[in-house]
Amino acid sequence: MYMRILLVEDDINLADVNRRLLVREGYVVDVAPSVAIAKAAVVDIKYDIILLDRMLPDGDGLELIKFSEKKNIPNRFLVLSALNDVDERIQGLDIGADDYIPKPFEPEELLARIRAALRHGLEEIKKEIKCGQLIFDCVGRSFQINGDAFVLPRRELIVLETLIQRVGRVTTRETIESEMYGYDDEILSNSLESHISKLRKNLKEHNIDASIHTVRGVGYILKETTNA
């Protein structure tokens, strides 16, 4: 079964280079040079992934993410943009981008990011999410390790659940804190760091092959630990 990609890019030469790259990898690619054309495309066609530039002739490409959410059109977005300051990346991730790749980028990195995003898309239709030995039951909202319950205090549970929902991808601290504040409005400013520290200790004590990494200035990422 082929995978269909929408490439939202107004630079004709860059769009052609990336389209050729993707076609060689076996993807079916549509190109939209503006937000308006991209909106029309996502209404009519189901895409497996959308590669999204931001600085488009008729506005910020992030508007397409907002539009898709408003219209209840599920999509996976990889932002490809020269707007790569920390604040810009945080904005893109918080709005709903699945990944944010600064321009310029290496072709092989783009292909790897696409493969990763597509794998995560397949995971999301399942009833559980795995990260090494750590398994999250999306229905029961509970964790297991090798079949045994992995019990956590409520706040640590919220943080780990938020991270594993985006396993292998960056989760901004604002996203995590918004989930935490929904449960407790009295969380202190340094509370997140404290819970991350406790989670790291808990994962290590249980010899779980998953770890939480800090992405400086942005947030955190949960990854499976591999032996070097």
From TrEMBL:
It comes from the Bacteria. SUPFAM superfamilies: CheY-like. This is DNA-binding response regulator. Residues 126-224 bind DNA. The keyword DNA-binding applies. GO terms for biological process: regulation of DNA-templated transcription. SMART domains: REC (SM00448), Trans_reg_C (SM00862). One of its GO terms (cellular component) is cytosol. Residues 4-118 form the Response regulatory domain. The modification 4-aspartylphosphate is found at D53. Keywords: DNA-binding, Phosphoprotein. InterPro entries: CheY-like_superfamily (IPR011006), OmpR/PhoB-type_DNA-bd (IPR001867), Sig_transdc_resp-reg_receiver (IPR001789), WalR-like (IPR039420), WH-like_DNA-bd_sf (IPR036388). The keyword Transcription regulation does not apply. Residues 126-224 form the OmpR/PhoB-type domain. GO terms for molecular function: phosphorelay response regulator activity; transcription cis-regulatory region binding.
